[in-house]
Write a structure and sequence with these properties.
Distance between the termini: 32 Å
Number of strands: 16
Strand content: 5-15%
CATH topology of the largest domain: D-Maltodextrin-Binding Protein, domain 2
Shape: globular
Number of domains: 2
Number of helices: 17
CATH superfamily of the largest domain: Periplasmic binding protein-like II
Oligomer: single chain
CATH class of the largest domain: Alpha Beta
Largest sheet: 5 strands, mixed
CATH architecture of the largest domain: 3-Layer(aba) Sandwich
Length: about 500
């Protein structure tokens, strides 16, 4: 069953904050990663920025002033472009909602702006919510596969989770977007580093990600901390912020704050749910620890094709450190459940100093979100393995990517819609989300805003996530097994063979 939702009502576009500037990107810089987001106070909007009678309106600056390369007179004479997506992130990525939440409103009016500009209508086809998120993702992908294999023209644009986009890209279900009309991959709103890292080879580009989908950023890792508890243990939030900004925020540094938090509240000498811990974790889902530690597990050969490439010495050190943090000295509590909604409960109730999670918890997308805590909290990137590495905000494979099926008959309109949606998100939606909702509504210090900048600018996804190879480390730390070298030797052949088959399928179906 599909719900058809069309943003067909023309209205005045919201005046939204445009406080983020982005690094420039020209034709020779097509591999530019996400723009560095820095507040731009010259572009303030709102009541205080209103123009007095007779005055000239101030020029737009920063993101709001970013120009795309779509022709000014481009019009598709009322065509309807069908966008197939899921319900979980629909308000953030697709349909939005008129009124109320500012971010949802921004998405809603983005659609109207794109419709008006291109002379078409957006028909969002929202997959039925089965109540099982994993099954929802599979259902969305299977609907595309069934449609394409039947040579049926059912969808013009597919917006779905990254892992399914990748899998179907090697099956040959999508059009190569690298040279598609109207799609300008040199623009800063496309995250070309991420697209390259998630692709078999960028000689062809079958899926895109970037500012077109807020969910990719929402699913990036973030370390939240309880400011009141931190002070109770004799530390200041500024200690943590300084460690991050000086490049010292490593797992060793993290342990300085986490080592002495444990309190046996009932005095039974055993780990129990109501005791106080540094943080809690879900035993079945540990990959975000390894994907945010600063290590990369894929390199490229002379043809740009991916090669499994673990730095064994450093990965051994990471596995040993994470096993110690997760399993020793009562630092962390392993939640005996596969219900991810339980992750925020001990943090919201003041029983955890940290919450090692994803940014989505700072929004109202999930139940038990951080809006439910009365305590002030701060935001940090995940710790890295060592100071010489860069921070990583591992986004796994859960954010939405966009593609165009090979059976699409409205290709030019679809290409133009993808570019226009991403450009408009860059100009208006992402500033509303990033500046207003995250930095103001969900944070209480300017320092937290700087931390969010760091997380945003270091979102990281690659083939180890998207193709499932990061489970190697996850399996070891779930089982408290430090023998990475032996485990890798045993599994590496399987992974290499699997990757070889993916490359073969990619080249065959291309």
């Amino acid at each position: 069953m599909k719900k058809r939702i069309s943003a067909a009502i023309l209205a005045l576009f919201l005046i939204l904050p445009s406080l983020v500037t982005g690094c420039s990107s020209g034709p020779d810089n097509a591999d530019t990663q996400k723009p560095t987001a820095t507040p731009d106070t010259s572009a303030q909007t709102g009541p205080e920025a209103e123009t007095e009678p007779g005055e000239t309106e101030p020029e737009e600056t920063g993101r709001a002033a970013a120009k795309d390369s779509l022709p000014d007179n481009l019009s598709f004479d009322g065509e309807s472009v069908r966008v197939w997506t899921g319900s979980e992130m629909a308000k953030f990525d697709a349909i939005g909602e008129d009124g109320g939440d500012q971010v949802y409103s921004a998405v809603f009016y983005r659609n109207i702006a794109v419709e008006d500009r291109l002379g078409l209508s957006l028909d969002y086809l929202i997959a039925e919510d089965t109540g099982d998120a994993a099954q929802n993702f599979l259902n969305i992908a299977e609907a595309v596969r069934t449609s394409v294999l039947a040579n049926s023209d059912d969808y013009d644009v597919v917006m779905q989770r990254g892992i399914q986009s990748f899998q179907q890209s090697v099956e040959g279900l999508y059009i190569d977007l690298k040279s598609a009309p109207y799609v300008d991959l040199a623009q800063p709103w496309w995250w070309m580093d991420t697209i390259r890292d998630c692709s078999i080879n960028t000689s062809r580009v079958y899926f895109l990600t970037g500012d077109i989908s807020l969910s990719t950023f929402l699913m990036s890792t973030a370390c939240f901390f309880n400011k009141t508890m931190l002070a109770d243990y004799g530390f200041e939030a500024s200690d943590l912020y300084s460690a991050v900004e000086e490049g010292r925020w490593t797992w060793d540094e993290f342990e300085k704050y986490a080592a002495n938090v444990y309190e046996d509240k009932n005095g039974d000498g055993k780990d129990s749910p109501n005791d106080v811990y540094a943080f809690s974790w879900l035993g079945y889902n540990t990959n975000y620890f390894s994907s945010s530690a600063g290590l990369k597990y894929i390199s490229r050969d002379e043809n740009g094709l991916p090669v499994i490439d673990f730095d064994v010495e450093r990965t051994v050190a990471l596995v040993e450190k994470l096993n110690h943090i997760l399993h020793d000295d009562h630092i962390a509590y392993k939640i005996p459940s596969e219900n991810y909604l339980e992750l925020a409960v001990p943090f919201n109730e003041g029983r955890n100093l940290f919450m090692m999670a994803r940014f989505v918890w700072a929004t109202e997308a999930y139940d038990n979100n951080l809006r439910m805590t009365d305590e002030p909290y701060g935001t940090l990137p995940y710790p890295k393995l060592s100071e010489d590495l860069d921070y990583m905000s591992g986004s796994g494979m859960s954010g939405n990517f966009v593609s165009v099926p090979i059976t699409c008959s409205r290709v030019n309109a679809s290409f133009a819609v993808i570019e226009a949606l991403c450009a408009e998100n860059y100009r208006s939606v992402f500033p509303a989300f990033y500046e207003t909702m995250l930095k103001v509504k969900y944070s209480d210090e300017e320092a937290d805003a700087r931390m969010i900048d760091i997380i945003h600018d270091h979102v990281y996804i690659d083939l180890t996530n998207i193709a499932g190879y990061d489970t190697l480390i996850g399996d070891l730390i779930s089982k408290n097994n430090n023998n990475f070298a032996s485990y890798y030797e045993k599994k590496s052949g399987v992974f290499k063979n699997s990757l070889a088959k993916l490359i073969e399928s990619y080249e065959k179906n291309g």
